[in-house]
Design goal:
The complex is a heterodimer of chains A (110) and B (113). Chain A is mainly beta and 110 residues long. Chain A has no helices and 11 strands. Chain B has 113 residues and is mainly beta. Classes of the chains: A mainly beta (110), B mainly beta (113).
Amino acid sequence: SQQGEEDPQALSIQEGENATMNCSYKTSINNLQWYRQNSGRGLVHLILIRSNEREKHSGRLRVTLDTSKKSSSLLITASRAADTASYFCATGNQGGKLIFGQGTELSVKP
Amino acid sequence: DAGITQSPRHKVTETGTPVTLRCHQTENHRYMYWYRQDPGHGLRLIHYSYGVKDTDKGEVSDGYSVSRSKTEDFLLTLESATSSQTSVYFCAISESTAHETQYFGPGTRLLVL
């Protein structure tokens, strides 16, 4: 069964707007990661946030982690058409494996 | 794709036939994984390897076997393919402990008729 659940399942915005995706999980974690998948391609790692961190930035990406609520959010600022993709959260725990959510499909219209 | 190739990239096969998918890496990473991706299920771990000849089962291992005789190669075998194994299969690698960043191959689309 999947640990991470993304919300919303699909998101459609205009270029220049911000996109926010959320991920909830159930058990304790060591880290939470976000990946992007363009259509027909493999997943690409975007950012990793550890359980003792609350916020992390990478370029136009901002990730927050609230371990008390077992949730994370990914914010993409000033979105571009090239950001159109599916975004997945994945949780890493002491079991030694990543568990992926089902993803959010982001569509950025020019 | 971080020095990861998968072969074949596309395959059509018939129910009951054996199928082997290959993952090859040039990064000398210790950990290798096989996932399947299906609509409504996201990515699910089939098997993984934490070293040469060291493998373990994932979430959906029934009907699959793996082998790793060299650091760079991780093979996934469907002993007798079924239509429920129609999927996109991804190989991934990671350098250190298994829950750190993973790097994915381009995927193999498998259709079992």
